[in-house]
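Onboarding guide, step 5: your first structure request.
Type a short instruction followed by the sequence, for example:

Predict the 3D structure of this protein.
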Amino acid sequence: MTGLVISLDQIQYFLLMFVRVITMLALLPIFGASYIPVQIKAAFGLLLTSVLFSVQLAAGLPEFPGTFSLALFFMLVVKEALVGLAVGFASSFLFTAVQFAGRMVDTEMGFGFVEVVDPFTEEQVTVLSQFQVILFTILFLLINGHYFMLITVQRSFDLIPLFSAVFPTGPMTEHITGMVANVFILGFKLAAPVFVTLFLTQMALGIVARTVPQMNIFFVGLPLKIFVGILTMLIVLPMLASLFRRMAEWIIQDIWKLLYMMSG
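The system replies with structure tokens like these:
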């Protein structure tokens, strides 16, 4: 009976793959949510790494760059962690734009002073932004966005094999800066229908306040803006869902571009 033989090189490869996988999972939407226990994240990361490692082992592991040393191994760990951080950070922009849009609308509706704890980030967020995050998380699952995230982890090893990642400072900085700018653009697009309606409502209330000074505009305007804002959101929700789907496609394209940049 032949026992299972595991070489030291295979252990090193497995640890490096685990570093990249667990770093990505810590930042990916849904998989990196803070309400998921750390033990489950670590177990899922080990399981996913085991599957990917078996595939890489069958295809042939790349040659270790140079003579093994703790300093070299530490540098390789940092390198793989940077790959995972870059991909995970880029994928988190999607729901950052959703939260930004919700906060804009909440501020205009008068809900800006009402905050709750976001289970994804454990930060204080407004009510409507949290509602939008939950709503679009469900939509993200319906369009199989979580499958794409897992495919991204797998494809990263095809495009960027171990030890071969490069970080072109200029193009990566320009690309990530553009993605950060797109967060604000996408947030404005998501908030535009409701925000513009509330702005026009505010202008109408201002005209009424000038023509009927006896009316308490604050007493009338606050519930009116809440009613108009919620009604407008319900009306434009199908359009926002379609926009979110296109946003997810844009983020996916940006992540692929980032992977190709790091592939050299």
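Each response can be followed by summary notes, for example: The CA atoms of residues 25 and 188 lie 28 Å apart.
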